[in-house]
Write the structure tokens for this entry.
Amino acid sequence: MAFPATRLRRLRATPVLRELVRETRLSPADMVLPLFVQAGDTRRTPISSLPSIDRLSISAAVEEAGAAAALGLPAVLLFGIPEHKDADGTGAYDDEGIVQLATRAIKDAHPDLVVMTDVCLCEYTDHGHCGLLRADGCVDNDPSVELIARAAVSHARAGADVVAPSDMMDGRIGAVRAALDDEGFGDTPIVAYSAKFASAFYGPFREAAGSAPAFGDRRAYQMDPANGDEALREALLDVQEGADVVMVKPALAYLDVILRVKDATHLPVAAYNVSGEYAMIKAAAAAGALDERAAVLETLTSIRRAGADIVITYHAKDAAGWL
Ligand code: PBG
């Protein structure tokens, strides 16, 4: 039936009616707050390109995790900034490394909060790449995967509830699963950064983590932004290798990928609303160009509408406070 019998405006007439027919809901329960934890005693170091997000000492991270939990957020995702970096990224798989220490401290103080850890070498290597380098400068896949698996086990040993490998090496999900199982962590879930694109939107994160590659870029391991079918192959391979949750990253320029990955895998899907996406809204709001609260809630809703069950976002505390 067409107009005039059909009038879609009928169900938009009042806030209560709109609420009744709303298809997508946003809740703090779906959001994860990323935290940058730095070695040393400096409690908070601002990150110029990420307003309101700081690098935190372990004690400040424990407080921030408590604030997140108090707002109803179920989980934090930890990134470590070590004191020393080296060619092999040894800080990533050191049982006394920064993420391992922070995980223990946060779990001690807030046992019910889910601690997820980003598993990668790039924050720990002096060259800033996500794995070991061969003599020709190319990232060497298979030996890197062994170290990624060691890092994941070390995080689990420290008490991480969930590990999230973000390196984009081939075969790492299977290797992480096998290593966790061998070490008695058969119940630790893996959130796989399955479709992680070589994106310009990671800029502020690299300032935060000091992890910009010293030479070249990440296009030989992260995905080409032009490819959607390949993202499905990545996600389906990770499912076969044992991923419990698959992730698409970034979120906003890849909403179509989120939708396709959800349809193809039927797994819980996470989307990472990355640092550059956050910085854009913050900058526009600071310039008076848009209403921050409305823009953030609309953005997060769109990521959920596309099919993400979990949204990893630097806006999590603000959004939880508004909801
Ligand atoms: C690194 C990693 C990156 C992000 C999360 N894990 C950056 C990169 O690949 O350079 C980006 C997160 C963000 O931009 O918010 N393995």
Notes: The chain has a mean pLDDT of 97. The pocket of PBG is lined by residues 118, 120, 122, 130, 166, 202, 205-206, 211, 218, 274-275 (CB under 6 Å).
